[in-house]
Design a protein that fits this description.
Beta-Lactamase; Heat Shock Protein 90; 3 domains; five-stranded antiparallel sheet; about 15% strand; elongated
Length: about 475
């Protein structure tokens, strides 16, 4: 006999024994009236519903009604009712027992679902911690499959990476023929569900980047979707790290530029706009749980980082090829500062930014988008290299026919011998390169764009008292006055 019917039969027998015990107690051992017996039956039925379920409670309700009629409603000892009012009482008892059983069963089911959601939340949180702490020296796919099997208590997990064509396994068992199913699911982008096995694609940017097989894992659709998103994020991050490692190796033999662009072309072709829109929507969703909002914030931040890397690479290739085209128009540096600070609103939250740029400064003839990129690079530098919470000061002045914008931070400062080298392509100061992320392109791009405008970028300040990066652009000539 299957396990579930056997359990149901056993629990039904126990339920009937409970009704029999209540009947014997109320009719033989302790003589009570019909009202007291009815309440005793109701309490027993509620206990049965809470302990086992609705089916057992319904059977117990029907049997209890028959016992109530036979032993407590006159004429006692017969399945008939002499007083018509007792018919109302009998059916009221049955209705009350059924409704109470249903309510008790529903509460039990909701409590079980709540425990299941809590368990799934804890499992997803454990998986997110693993993703953040993945050992970079080992295969991510093998680590992921093993950890998913352990976290979700699955006897068999298989992870397929479409790019490499590898299948990684976790758990003590192996599902025959799973490799072909994984590849087919990744190619078609559709789930395959069996009684104890689910094979589902891993989607990123509307495209399947792999597939995942889980055996004997019960997850809600939302939890399964969150699991797949976590794996997709981790796979994409691993690919990015691998691309960065290849780029670093290529830099040693003068092939860095082509390798970097190739990595960008092949590894970062995800729809950044769609990712950003989706992650921003998730972060602002008030109904989202805290751990999912944390994951959505990670997606949002990584999308910004990826966008910045792509922008830097594209600008570098344009600069090297001499194809930077300037769309010059009158530009007031105060408006430029306001525009860039608005873009950095979330990053500078809680940090004081003092802006002293007079509206009386003359305009400059510049490409607003490119100069915004320059100021973003310098402001990003100030945020990364200065202590958290320390103020940043932005000032503007007119000097020798140029408009000079200064960004002063409270960082460690830059030694004199390093002040020219930090503007070289790919160069990073060794004192900070080990613990502050960067590509060594930002300052190079900022200087080249500014020089294309006929200006320059340099750094001032004493070591130990912060750095002051300066942007100088030719002031726009004042229009000649018309003769009277």
């Amino acid at each position: 006999m299957p396990v579930r019917p056997l359990i149901l039969a056993r629990q039904t027998v126990f339920s009937l024994l409970i009704i029999a015990a209540i009947t014997a107690l109320c009719s033989r051992l302790v003589t009570v009236n019909a009202t007291t017996a009815g309440f005793a039956y109701l309490l027993g039925i509620l206990g049965i519903a809470a302990a086992w379920g609705l089916v057992e409670a319904i059977i117990a309700s029907v049997v209890a009604m028959l016992c109530y009629n036979f032993y407590f409603l006159p004429p006692v000892g017969q399945f008939t009712i002499a007083d018509p009012q007792n018919w109302v009482a009998l059916f009221a008892f049955l209705a009350t027992a059924l409704v109470a059983s249903h309510i008790s069963d529903r509460e039990k089911r909701q409590a079980r679902e709540a425990r299941s959601r809590q368990s799934q939340t804890e499992q997803l949180y454990a998986l997110s911690r693993f993703i953040l702490l993945t050992n970079p020296t080992q295969s991510f796919g093998r680590q992921a499959a093993q950890h998913i099997a352990e976290i979700f208590d699955s006897p068999s997990v298989a992870l397929y990476d479409s790019k490499s064509g590898d299948v990684f396994r976790g758990g003590p068992r192996d599902v025959p023929g799973i490799e072909e199913q994984l590849k087919q699911v990744a190619m078609l982008g559709a789930d395959v569900r069996q009684p104890d096995l689910v094979v589902t694609p891993i989607m990123l940017g509307g495209h399947a980047i792999g597939s995942l097989a889980l055996q004997q894992v019960e997850l809600s659709d939302g939890a399964l979707h969150a699991l797949l998103n976590l794996v997709a994020i981790a796979m994409e991050r691993t690919r990015g790290e691998e691309a960065a490692s290849r780029a670093e190796a290529a830099r040693q033999n003068e092939e860095f530029k082509s390798t970097l662009l190739d990595a960008i072309a092949h590894e970062f072709k995800t729809p950044l706009t769609s990712i950003k829109a989706a992650s921003t929507s998730l972060v602002s969703d008030a109904t989202l749980s805290s751990h999912l909002r944390e994951l959505a914030t990670i997606i949002d931040e990584e999308a910004d980082r990826l966008s910045q890397l792509v922008t830097e690479a594209v600008r570098m290739s344009q600069i090297d090829a001499g194809t930077v085209r300037l769309d010059r128009a009158p530009l007031h540096v105060g408006e430029l500062v306001d525009r860039v600070l608005a873009q950095f609103k979330t990053r500078i939250e809680g940090r004081e930014v003092r802006v002293r740029v007079s509206s009386a400064l003359p305009a400059v003839m510049a490409d607003a988008d490119l100069m915004a990129l320059v100021l973003r690079q310098l402001l990003d530098n100030a945020l990364k290299y200065s202590p958290p919470g320390s103020p940043i000061e932005i000032t503007g002045e007119q000097k020798d026919g140029r408009v000079v914008l200064r960004i002063h931070d409270q960082g460690p400062g830059i030694p004199l011998r390093e002040r020219e080298r930090i503007f070289e392509k790919f160069y990073r100061w060794q004192a900070t390169s080990s613990h502050i992320p960067g590509t060594g392109l930002g300052l190079y791009i900022a200087r080249e764009i500014t020089r294309a405008h006929g200006g320059d970028v340099w750094v001032e300040g004493e070591p130990g008292s912060g750095s002051e990066f300066c942007i100088a652009l030719p002031a726009r000539p004042e229009p000649a006055a018309l003769p009277a």
